[in-house]
Hints:
CATH topology of the largest domain: HU Protein, Chain A
CATH class of the largest domain: Few Secondary Structures
CATH architecture of the largest domain: Irregular
Radius of gyration: 20 Å
Amino acid sequence: MAKAPQVAKTVTRADLAEAVYQRVGLSRTESAELVETVLAEISDVLVNGANVKLSSFGSFLVRSKSERIGRNPKTGVEVPITPRRVMVFKPSNIMKGRVNGDVVADEAE
């Protein structure tokens, strides 16, 4: 019998703030403010339609999708899907390697 896949824990803003607190040495309040500031800046840039590239991590890209015809899977009725902007994340090759357990040149040294 195959094992069910293990569900990974979701990392929250509080977890990120705690990591900053433990690694950087700022107070817990300052760490939480720093995390909020970084996330707000990333959000603002994306809302304005620009992309965010974090070296060795990946890029957050905003793409425009045009109007198209979709289909309701239950009824089969065609419905128009309105144009919209979507955000996608494209991991860097270094991040892909880390996720897959590969030794990456930056980490090997």
